[in-house]
Amino acid sequence: MLIGSAKWKIGKVSFLPIMFGVLMALLDVGMMGVAKLTHQKKFSYVGGLILSTAIYTPQPYLFLKAMNFESMTAVNLIWNLSSNLIVTLMGVFYFGETIAGLRWVAIGMALLSLGLFAYSAND
To answer: Where are the domains of the chain?
Structure first.
């Protein structure tokens, strides 16, 4: 398996769980982006619903594969943090939404949390 044979760890930092989280988050970006465009009436309701569901279809497969390398708890948190960051960037840079004040601190803390999940002190 290509994933298992690649070197995903540098020192005590493992990038493999982050890679899975980012892949799953990119599916979230596609699904949520289509949902937002559907809300803005740029897609029909039925078409947007079908397309967003189709984009999201590989999610359980990726989650299942990720659990070969990390616990369900860690995979879920990494996926959620990655999704929160990447979907937020889409909202700001593509849809022109704004973030102000302490919400930037929350984004920084999410990024720090991802780094902590990548660090594996027990290995």
So the answer is: 13-118
Helices (H) and strands (E) in the chain, counts: 6, 2
For residues 39-69, b (16+ Cβ closer than 10 Å) or e, as one string? eeeebeeeebeebbeebbeeeeebbeebeeb
Written as six digits, the tokens of 108 are 């920084």
> pLDDT higher for 14 or 34?
34
Task: State the distance between the two ends of the chain, measured CA to CA, in whole angstroms.
Answer: 22
Cβ count near 1 (within 10 Å): 7
What mean pLDDT is predicted for residues 26-31?
A: 94
User: What mean pLDDT value characterizes the chain?
Assistant: 88
Indicate if the pLDDT at residue 1 is higher than 60. no
H/E stretch holding 68: none
